[in-house]
Design goal:
The chain is an alpha+beta fold. It has helices at about 10-25, 40-55, 70-85, 95-105, 120-125, 130-135, and strands at about 60, 90-95, 105-110, 115-120, 140-145, 145-150.
């Protein structure tokens, strides 16, 4: 399905692309299963593979880690960073504030349908956006030079 917009019939090269994306996402064993039989997390992975196959310059992803476990969410974040490094633009809708601040180059916060903040993650943290807009408490953990922020 991911290639159907640009290819009328799948040849060997297209099937190779499909196989590579399935392996990249660790879902090759799902290839023969009907989508309706998949769990929510498995469906998320399939839909991400479908999106990646389209080779679009811009990916719009709505909660791509929903229904997935923590190890896959970490893998997904690395995959998304790699896509950005390849020159893709990603627009993510996320409700996980910590993950959004970790992943994003820019953060936008919508409040009652209006843009209430737009800036870098550093600016969001400096202006206490998670605390003021979402009522969250910030926790910081340091390892070496790196600081990770968690919100509750």
């Amino acid at each position: 399905m991911g290639l159907s917009a640009s290819v009328a019939r799948l040849g060997a090269a297209e099937w190779q692309q499909v196989t590579e994306k399935l392996q990249l996402l660790g879902i090759a064993e799902l290839a023969e299963r009907p989508v309706r039989t998949l769990s929510g997390g498995e469906r998320q992975k399939v839909f991400l593979a479908l999106s990646l196959l389209q080779n679009a310059d811009v990916l719009l992803l709505d909660e791509p880690a929903t229904y997935t476990d923590a190890p896959y969410a970490a893998q997904l974040h690395e995959l998304l960073r790699a896509e950005c490094a390849r020159g893709k633009t990603l627009l993510l809708v996320m409700h996980d504030v910590g993950a959004a601040l970790e992943l994003a180059d820019r953060v936008a916060v919508l409040e009652n349908g209006s843009l209430s903040f737009y800036g870098t993650p550093h600016e969001a943290l400096a202006k206490e956006i998670p605390e003021k807009h979402f009522g969250l408490t910030r926790y910081a953990a340091k390892r070496g030079e790196k600081t990770a922020y968690f919100f509750r």
